[in-house]
């Protein structure tokens, strides 16, 4: 924090505030201040003109400063350290502390005790004692939370003592309430985003047409209607009255745009009713003087009818234009928000989390003037833009993260636009799980490929070994057959002679049948003949039905 050597309340301090976004203005910027609208704050920053406090407001300010000074000793006893008024800045943000310790760990903020604060502290007292200290600050009205949060953002305070009190004129304390406020990171982020949007709106600010608070005006006053009757009409300005009345009624504005127009129209409606009543009174006056004066009565009835129609028509126009203008302002807010979202989508590449259309109609509900409706819609639009900007910022960070970590794995993330809308923790989990699964799948495929190649190589080697054995066994059989002696030739027949006892020669022995080939030789021969694998041949042999062979 940069400490500025200024005394609060001086002209130098006021000049300093004009160049910074101040903690005391943060509630109005966030649209939570009951004392100033966001539109008013924009105008003040844009023009540099801040309204002078009324005498009543100045009295309240003075009383607040008096009670703040009286409460300081109590605040120091609660904190256990001395407090010093400080003005500090952090970037474009500024805060004026009622009190700050030398370590800057503890700050002090005082407000005049009022009914809203009494109700808030009554709610705080309902919290369980063991949780009261941590939660008390979150139960204070939001405008005080916002101010203290910005003070904490600037001073990096660990806590802020919030005191509210009332003191007698003699300096005796009449009532006091206090609690600690602890920094809220979520609220700090909203305040930071809120000032960013405020700066954008300030740069684009165009001063609206200044309008004095509308005070309804009636049309030109009609002349007094004078009728005197003594058995006959003796004097009357009725015809001149009628001509003038028709001219006045015809000149009434029916194109209502501003608050002034509406105020005029509403008062004119009442005025038309009064004209009708005056005409009735004139008619009754004439009728009381004479039983019948047709011309007078017809003319009076004619003027009265014009006044009645004008009153009814203008009343309808007032109601209709109010609805039209209100709907136009709401429609303008919706269109502006939709255009802002489209521009953010262009920045995120189409990735977006649907936040829903803000309830502009709800914001305008109960507002009676055009300016109050416009301010309510503008404030809601600004807050909605802040929320949308925060969402877009998170999505842009996710897009950058995805671009960095999925390089080389883009094919795994065809849904990257949708993934960019996730919370960063969920996104990290999805990315890591997909990439890890892909790597595991690729490793498994590589292992399966290596195993298949190994089996094929092994089968090839076994096949070659079987062929080699079969060739060797075949060669051995051929050699064995070649080495066996040839059978002796049969003796030639001799001429018949006298029988004699001759010893019979034993017949020559047949060559021994070849030995049975080994199982491996049989399998190798079948493998070679059918060009099959050993596994296939063994399977065939197992399936053979020898009973039909």
From TrEMBL:
<dbReference type="InterPro" id="IPR011335">
    <property type="entry name" value="Restrct_endonuc-II-like"/>
</dbReference>
<feature type="compositionally biased region" description="Pro residues">
    <location>
        <begin position="486"/>
        <end position="496"/>
    </location>
</feature>
<feature type="compositionally biased region" description="Low complexity">
    <location>
        <begin position="497"/>
        <end position="509"/>
    </location>
</feature>
<dbReference type="InterPro" id="IPR016889">
    <property type="entry name" value="UCP028503"/>
</dbReference>
<feature type="compositionally biased region" description="Basic and acidic residues">
    <location>
        <begin position="441"/>
        <end position="477"/>
    </location>
</feature>
<protein>
    <submittedName>
        <fullName>Uncharacterized protein</fullName>
    </submittedName>
</protein>
<feature type="region of interest" description="Disordered">
    <location>
        <begin position="441"/>
        <end position="517"/>
    </location>
</feature>
<dbReference type="InterPro" id="IPR011604">
    <property type="entry name" value="PDDEXK-like_dom_sf"/>
</dbReference>
């Amino acid at each position: 924090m940069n400490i500025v050597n200024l005394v609060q309340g001086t002209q130098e301090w006021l000049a300093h505030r004009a160049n910074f976004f101040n903690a005391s203005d943060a509630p109005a910027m966030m649209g939570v201040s009951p004392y100033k609208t966001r539109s008013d704050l924009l105008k003040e920053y844009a023009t540099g003109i801040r309204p002078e406090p009324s005498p009543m407001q100045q009295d309240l300010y003075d009383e607040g400063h008096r009670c703040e000074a009286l409460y300081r000793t109590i605040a120091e006893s609660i904190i256990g350290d001395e407090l010093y008024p400080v003005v500090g800045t952090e970037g474009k943000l500024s805060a004026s502390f009622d009190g700050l310790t030398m370590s800057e760990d503890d700050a002090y903020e005082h407000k005049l005790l009022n009914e809203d604060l009494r109700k808030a502290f009554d709610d705080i007292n309902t919290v369980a004692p063991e949780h009261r200290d941590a939660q008390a600050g979150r139960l204070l009205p939001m405008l005080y939370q916002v101010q203290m949060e910005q003070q904490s953002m600037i001073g990096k305070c660990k806590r802020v003592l919030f005191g509210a009190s009332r003191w007698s004129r003699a300096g005796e304390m009449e009532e006091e309430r206090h609690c600690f406020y602890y920094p809220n990171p979520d609220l700090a982020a909203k305040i930071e985003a809120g000032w960013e949007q405020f700066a954008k709106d300030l740069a684009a600010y165009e001063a609206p047409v200044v309008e004095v608070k509308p005070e309804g005006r009636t049309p030109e006053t009609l002349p007094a209607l004078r009728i005197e009757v003594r058995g006959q009409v003796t004097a009357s300005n009725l015809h001149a009255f009628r001509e003038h009345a028709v001219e006045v009624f015809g000149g009434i504005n029916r194109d209502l745009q501003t608050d002034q127009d509406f105020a005029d129209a509403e008062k004119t409606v009442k005025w038309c009713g009064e004209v009708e009543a005056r005409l009735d009174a004139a008619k009754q006056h004439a009728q009381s003087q004479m039983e019948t004066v047709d011309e007078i009565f017809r003319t009076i009835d004619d003027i009265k009818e014009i006044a009645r129609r004008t009153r009814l028509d203008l009343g309808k126009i007032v109601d209709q234009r109010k609805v039209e203008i209100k709907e136009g302002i709401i429609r303008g807010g919706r269109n502006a928000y939709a255009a802002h979202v489209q521009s953010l989508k262009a920045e995120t590449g189409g990735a977006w989390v649907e936040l829903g259309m803000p309830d502009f109609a709800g914001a305008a509900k109960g507002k009676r003037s055009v300016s109050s409706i416009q301010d309510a819609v503008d404030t809601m639009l600004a807050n909605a833009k802040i929320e949308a900007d925060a969402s877009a910022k998170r999505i842009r960070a996710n897009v950058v993260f995805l671009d960095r970590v999925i390089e080389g794995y883009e094919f795994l993330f065809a849904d990257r636009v949708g993934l960019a809308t996730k919370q960063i923790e969920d996104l990290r989990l999805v990315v890591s799980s997909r990439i890890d699964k892909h790597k595991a799948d690729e490793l498994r495929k590589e292992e399966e490929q290596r195993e298949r190649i190994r089996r094929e190589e092994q089968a090839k080697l076994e096949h070659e070994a079987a062929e080699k054995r079969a060739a060797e066994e075949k060669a051995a059989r051929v050699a064995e057959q070649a080495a066996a002696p040839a059978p002796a030739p049969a003796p030639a027949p001799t001429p018949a002679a006298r029988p004699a006892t001759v010893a019979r020669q034993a017949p020559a022995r047949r060559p021994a049948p070849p030995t049975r080939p080994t199982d491996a030789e049989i399998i190798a021969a079948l493998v070679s003949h059918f060009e099959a694998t050993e596994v296939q041949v063994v399977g065939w042999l197992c399936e053979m039905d020898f009973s039909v062979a």
